[in-house]
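[job 4471] stage=fold_predict status=RUNNING
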Amino acid sequence: MLRKATKVTKASPGDRGAARRKRAQAGAAAGEKLESRQSSREQSTRIVVMGRVLAPYGVNGWIKARAFTVAPETLIAYRNWWLGRDDGDWQELAVLEARKHGGSVLARLEGVNEREAALMWRGASIGVPRSALPKLAPNEVYLADLIGLTVMSREGLTLGSVAGLMETGAHAVLRVVDAGRSERLIPLVAAYVDAIELDAGRIVVDWHADY
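[job 4471] inference complete, writing structure tokens
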């Protein structure tokens, strides 16, 4: 059975009295830094990665991107993209123009008007707020949520992690890469996928290491 991800919301601390407020004020500078880091982490959990910037395209600031969605049109439909890197900080940019280009997406973003500016975003993740995504039905998952999950066989052998997805027309295919950079292509169908466990960060498959 495919498991749906659950959202965990962290409650903010309440008022603990004047004495505690006084201690908090004494360490205000350190507290502000901690709060900033927490906000960055919490923000990153609200963004669902939908693609990645591949490279600049042309000289007028266009970017070439790979969509992690089944159809590139799904990514194109969003009028604002959030671009971010591994540090967890995201920047919202309006999509002025976007179109499908072969198997990739070409886009012109607000404030990115020349090749040098587009080059700065090469390799960045493209995401949208989870709140902007359609509500999932029971036993459904977003394909973008599968990126990075550990893939394990029924016997408990780690086969690698999901580096990306491919679309064959009939169904999506997991692109699983192991520590040695070997790649396996596993169809994302019930015949091969036993469970998608988002909370545990893994996918269990009926697949052998020598396949």
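[job 4471] summary: Residues 143-205 form a domain with the SH3 type barrels. fold (CATH 2.30.30.240).
[job 4471] exit 0
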